[in-house]
Amino acid sequence: MGVDIFCKDKHFYCGYGTWNDFRTSVIYSTVDYIQENNFDKINPHDEDGCTYRDELKKFVEYWHQDKSHDLESFLGYIRNRLIIMDAFIYLYVGGVYTLSFKNDFDSIYSVGNSRDICDLFGIIRPFFEKRYPGSMDVFDQVECLFQESVDHHENVTVW
């Protein structure tokens, strides 16, 4: 048994563990991107931006406290600090939550969800490739599937 994801003619299948590991890898790559690129880019005169910067710094500190974080610890953090979702959106990486939150079975990613995930993948690609060079095939397959959703305005289904 495993995760079967499809949209129109595109299809991706893997075991549950592989799917959860992939999503966790996306989270780690997103943290790398946030840490490396964004704290200094936020305008100090933008009140929302400063609030989000502070929340993102707390999140990155939390994430680096323990090297064994996984999908559940990420979702647990978000459930306890919902403002972090707005911070992700502010930095155009809201797709990390979208990808991570859905069930492993019987769920649907909307076209909007797919757009968010494609935007995220475009941003974090170099960080994912640097951290997980042996997993780029999975990254590319999943990205292609979500791009199919965006291109054809079709939902992605997970079985």
How would you spell out the order of helices and strands?
EEHHHHHEHHE
SS-based class:
alpha+beta
Task: Supply Rg.
Answer: 15 Å
The beta-strand count equals: 4
Please write out the topology.
Elements: E1 3-7, E2 10-14, H1 16-37, H2 47-65, H3 71-80, H4 83-90, H5 95-101, E3 107-109, H6 111-131, H7 136-152, E4 156-158
Antiparallel strand pairs: 1-2, 1-4, 3-4
Which properties best describe this structure?
single chain, 159 residues, alpha+beta, 4-stranded antiparallel sheet, 7 helices, 65% helix, 10% strand
Task: Outline the structure in words.
The chain starts with a strand and ends with a strand. Helix 1 (16-37) packs across helix 6, helix 5 (95-101) packs across helix 6 (111-131) and helix 6 (111-131) packs antiparallel against helix 7. It has a 4-stranded antiparallel sheet. 65% of the residues lie in helices and 10% in strands. It has one domain (3-158). With 159 residues, the chain is an alpha+beta fold. The mean pLDDT is 92.
